[in-house]
Q: What sequence folds into this?
């Protein structure tokens, strides 16, 4: 039975995603990065012996999101590449795709499995950060009730929104790594290229602002084109708007979420197309 005669199945996609998730959480890399990230976040506990007021809460939040961004990016790139190439090198992908399974089911199943693992990582990191903030906020309010009038110093809903946007950013990065892996021959090339693309996505807005308005039409056009090819990861960094009386705009958050979903769909589609033309 040919694959073309078999309808696309969300059930098969779910099975591939579930197996990918279980394989990922069993990896030592996942456990190592979870432990080291939570350890770094918890290291701010030494600040409990001091009292820097509400600015201390902003520091704890920034520290938590910094750890999430750094180690989450490393986990996303390494896990996506490793899980994809383990299927290729162990020939399990050949066995799996010999059955009536769409390559789109395989690619998006891998994506959803990795995306779920990164979601667990984000939930643990954000949850630990929020717990620390609640403890320290309670101590600050108890020590200076007249100054803060017993009001909350941190908008915890905004923390969750920013955490969800970071998770979505990792989803875009997962799709990018899958696209690279779909035509790459080695795990190492995929990981190295993935980190290069990560840096480009974080810094592309600087090149756009610097070169998009130059007199050279070809140069400015090329820079603008590259700004569409590579997603702007700086758009997802809304953590600076948390605390100190400012908040995250719901309209901005929805626009950024839509921006990320569009890139996931487009890059994921390109990964499927590339993988269809690959011999395993």
A:
């Amino acid at each position: 039975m040919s694959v073309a005669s078999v309808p696309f199945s969300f059930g098969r996609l779910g099975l591939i995603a579930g197996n990918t998730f279980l394989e990922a959480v069993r990896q030592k890399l996942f456990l190592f990065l979870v432990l080291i990230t939570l350890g770094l976040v918890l290291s701010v506990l030494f600040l409990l012996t001091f009292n820097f007021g509400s600015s201390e809460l902003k520091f704890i939040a920034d520290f938590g999101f910094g750890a999430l961004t750094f180690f989450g990016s490393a986990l996303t790139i390494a896990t996506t590449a490793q899980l994809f190439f383990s299927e290729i090198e162990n020939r399990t992908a050949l066995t799996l795709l010999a059955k009536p399974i769409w390559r789109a089911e395989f690619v998006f199943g891998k994506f959803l499995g990795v995306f779920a693992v990164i979601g667990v990582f984000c939930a643990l990191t954000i949850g630990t950060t929020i717990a620390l903030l609640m403890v320290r906020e309670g101590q600050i309010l108890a020590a200076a009730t007249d100054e803060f009038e017993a009001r909350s110093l941190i908008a915890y809903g905004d923390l969750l929104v920013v955490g969800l946007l970071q998770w979505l950013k990792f989803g875009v990065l997962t799709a990018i790594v899958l696209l690279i892996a779909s035509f790459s021959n080695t795990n190492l090339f995929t990981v190295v290229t993935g980190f290069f693309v990560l840096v480009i996505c974080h810094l592309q807005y600087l090149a756009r602002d610097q070169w998009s308005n130059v007199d050279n039409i070809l140069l400015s056009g090329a820079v603008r084109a590259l700004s569409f090819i590579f997603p702007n990861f700086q758009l997802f960094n809304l953590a600076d708007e948390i605390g100190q009386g400012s908040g995250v705009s719901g309209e901005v958050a929805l626009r950024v979420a839509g921006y990320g979903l569009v890139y996931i769909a487009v890059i994921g589609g390109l990964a499927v197309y590339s993988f269809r033309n690959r011999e395993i």
Summary: The two ends are 19 Å apart (CA to CA).
